[in-house]
Amino acid sequence: MSARASGATALHRAPVGPAALSVSGLDKRFGGHRLLASVSLEIAPGERVVLLGESGSGKSTLLNLIAGLEPADAGTIHIAGQRVDGGDADTSAALRRTRLGFVFQAFHLLPQLDALANVMVPLLLLGTSYPEARRLAQAQLESLGIAARARALPAMLSGGEQQRVAIARALVHRPTLLLADEPTGNLDEENAQRVLELLETACHEHGAALLMATHSAQAARAGTRVLRLAHASLHHV
Ligand SMILES: Nc1ncnc2c1ncn2[C@@H]1O[C@H](COP(=O)(O)OP(=O)(O)O)[C@@H](O)[C@H]1O
Ligand SMILES: [Mg+2]
Asked: What are the angstrom distances between the C-alpha of 204 and each of 48, 60, 100, 179, 180?
């Protein structure tokens, strides 16, 4: 290889940045039961990690701790190199709003807003102007193949369509990390497959890392790495 070619390769190498997610020594108890015992996990930018585990093993709890929906008993959580737990609650909340997207099993779209307005919400919360939020939300719906349903209320959409709108909403502000909790749990096999492919492609296109909890073997294939949560600890699969 010539010096020129190797120089070009070096120039185009991805920059070495902080992990998309870094969790260290995370503990969570409910009553006397220790659900997470010093759990540590690092996810590189763009990596897709599937989290398996039996019902009740603590998958949702782990995602909720990362998303700040519940407090941990101990441990630290960094997203893109910035600590999002402890410290100033407003700063942590702002960082999470900027850096995170969350896709739920039950979609959780706002029922009184149409698909387009649902996707605009995270942008408006971040201070994006209304016309710009509208433009970006429309483009995101288009890239997920659901722009034709932009003016439909969630109740008029199928489960697969609702989940695509929810994915659009979770990605529209270009988060570093997308959390997905059983995102195909309410879908038939065909819609589940479509949603998994969209999650995979969308994360790839936007460089978002993915942490997806599931107990579906079908969903596990969407990951670049598979972990299992059992007995309060993470295990490589
Ligand atoms: N807020 C809570 N208070 C008490 N127990 C809880 C709470 N949230 C979850 N749990 C318990 O923690 C366990 C794990 O729940 P969860 O994280 O939802 O597991 P998974 O998502 O793997 O099915 C369950 O036994 C559940 O009942
Ligand atoms: Mg769960």
From this structure: 9, 24, 16, 14, 15
